[in-house]
Design a protein that fits this description.
By secondary structure, the protein is of the alpha+beta class. It has one domain (2-339): Penicillin V Acylase, Chain A (4-Layer Sandwich). 16% of the residues lie in helices and 27% in strands. A hairpin with a 2-residue loop joins strand 14 and strand 15 (222-224). The relative contact order is 0.20.
């Protein structure tokens, strides 16, 4: 089972193109949003409702024999292909966490089979965070008590964002076996290279600004004028590489109007992330395009940490759906999982003309 899961995750690195943003509403609502990409095949994704008191079992490279722990908090999380591997979620305290692929730059400490009792698979780290903690500092303090490993070195590393409902966000990257926490005041995250590199790279786009560029007169009778609105961002990178997506997400997020309510901000987050929906075929040779996959962006999720609502839509269904954590009694609810889509087909609303 672990070998199959690892093989699937290795395929996922063909499209390690996740993009995350963060918005705040005028009423103080905090909204975390992100995309999840995989261009290899259609994924069977679902969501999990995990109650307080649920016993979690971690994997190691040698089996289902890693750290076992009991959930302190209930949470809702979205998994890709394999139910224990939560990639994005939020718990009942409002703490949110998600993983983003980080190939070629992250590196965990070597697996120590004598320490299985405190070993957690990297793909289960989000579950551990959401089930155990309510603050970032608690996570940081607990890192010394666990060993974080990968199931297969071919998969590549991941890095994580962890967000408190106050708006404090950190990025966790493990390089050379050492965990590094970076305060993320910007609120944007993509993939490799490292987070600090992406911040430095933004300096290459210091000329970008919202609105239209001013006319430029080269000499009498020759004046250059914008060819359309938004020319102040002429040169904004439009490809799907991680550095370009980081730059684009930064400018779309920071130029977004601040909406009055959390609900309006949730809708705005979906609109911003429309710009990161990767058309299937753009990452493949024509002969290698997978069948049955309308978009490499297999789902987009938006979490209102203040209202404790998790929204999502998928490549097959653009309708926005919502899970209200406030309606869940995490003391009584049973552990359960459900597919994101009951049918992988876009519903179409027919308009009746009288």
């Amino acid at each position: 089972m672990i070998a199959v899961a690892a093989a699937g995750l290795f395929a996922a690195t063909e499209a390690d193109a996740c993009t995350g943003i963060y918005l705040t509403a005028q009423d103080g609502s905090r909204v975390a949003a992100r995309t999840v990409e995989w261009a290899a095949t259609p994924m069977q994704c679902g969501y999990v409702v995990s109650p307080r008191g649920h016993v979690h079992q971690s994997f190691t490279p040698t089996g289902e024999n890693g750290m076992k722990y009991t959930g302190v908090y209930g949470y809702v999380g979205i998994y890709t292909e394999y139910e224990p591997f939560i990639v994005e979620g939020v718990n009942e305290t409002g703490l949110a966490a998600g993983l983003f692929f980080f190939p070629n730059y992250g590196e965990y400490a070597p697996y120590d089979k004598t320490a299985d009792a405190k070993t957690i698979c990297d793909m289960q780290f989000v579950s551990w965070v959401l089930s155990q903690f309510s603050t970032i500092d608690q996570v940081k303090d607990a890192m010394s008590r666990i060993n974080l490993v990968t199931l297969d070195s071919k998969i590549g590393a991941v890095h994580w964002r962890i967000i408190e409902p106050s708006g404090r966000m950190v990025v966790l990257e493990i390089v050379g076996g050492v965990p590094h926490f970076y305060e993320n005041q910007l609120g944007v995250l993509t993939n490799a290279p490292g987070f600090k590199w992406h911040l430095t790279n933004l300096n290459n786009y210091i000329n970008m600004e919202p609105g239209s560029a001013a006319d430029q007169t080269l000499k009498p009778g020759i004046t250059l004028q914008p060819l359309g609105h938004g020319s102040g961002m002429l040169g904004l990178p439009g490809d799907f590489t991680s550095p370009s997506r980081f730059v684009r997400a930064t400018f779309f997020q920071t130029t977004s109007p601040t909406w009055a309510t959390g609900r309006e901000t949730v809708v705005q987050a979906f609109h911003i992330l429309n710009n990161f929906d990767i058309p299937i075929g753009s990452q493949h040779a024509k002969a290698d395009i997978p069948k049955g996959l309308p978009s490499a962006t297999q789902f987009t999720s938006v979490t209102d940490q203040t209202a404790l609502k998790m929204y999502y839509r998928t490549a097959w269904n653009s309708n926005i759906r919502c899970i209200d954590l406030m309606s869940i009694d995490f003391h009584k609810v049973r552990y359960q999982s459900h597919p994101l889509d009951k049918s992988q087909e876009q519903p179409v609303e027919m308009i009746k003309i009288n």
